[in-house]
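Structure tokens please, single chain.
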Amino acid sequence: MEMRSKRIKICIAQINYSSENIQKHVERVKSIIDKHKVYDLIVFPELILHGHPSLEKPEGFLYRKMKVIYSEISSDLYQFVRDSSARVIIGELKRWGERYFNVATYIDKNLTQSYTKTHVHWTENFIPGRELIVFDSPFGKIGITICFDAAFSEVWRVLSLKGAGVIVNISAVPATFPVDYMWRRFVGAAIYNQIFVVYANRPGPYFSGCSAIFDPRGDIVVSSGSKETIIEADIDLNEIQRWRNEEKLYPNRRPLLYREIVNLHRSELVTLKPKTIESKRAIVN
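Here you go.
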């Protein structure tokens, strides 16, 4: 029996953050949301709401602004999204005491839920998250990853096994890291897990842009260059099941063969000195 079309419209806002006038920047974000609120999902890049600490001068200035200026920006945007009946994923910075977290937040009329970046790049000073989360949306389950998370194949498989048919990666990948490498990761993630991958990166000149959407076969649905742009795409979620019916990966998985992934990790922890283990716990707790 032919499946009924389950098409959704996705908007990727490949824009940069501007700290010169934060209110003007927030209004720009709201304007994009308002213009595309009829879309099923609007996606913004990593840390686009508050900026990235490493780009603020002097170093640490953004952290100080989080305490004084930025406390209401997130809640104000959340309410705007709800009032607009839009569905948005946006990158932001969250603060808990003196600890800071790199976060992707999904907002719609009924739900606001955040994912904290679990694989923090060695050049960043964020506290890593401890859970891979799948979000419920009106069109199905969504997985979210942030930038460096994309380098770990286990993340994609866990989110897929949790039921995510669409996994979104929001990024701030610098232009010094080859776009080809990022796209190869997404092609692999899409075809190995038979999912749609949505990639939203910041544009140049400092970042590489090249946001894109990949279908369950790993083919590119739509892509951009390195400059600021708004990408709009229409995808059919039934393509996931069509491909899974043709290439039956999931029923033929043999999880017991893969247990060494976990067992090796446990053996690594056993060989660590107690002080090292305690220091790791202090970071993630």
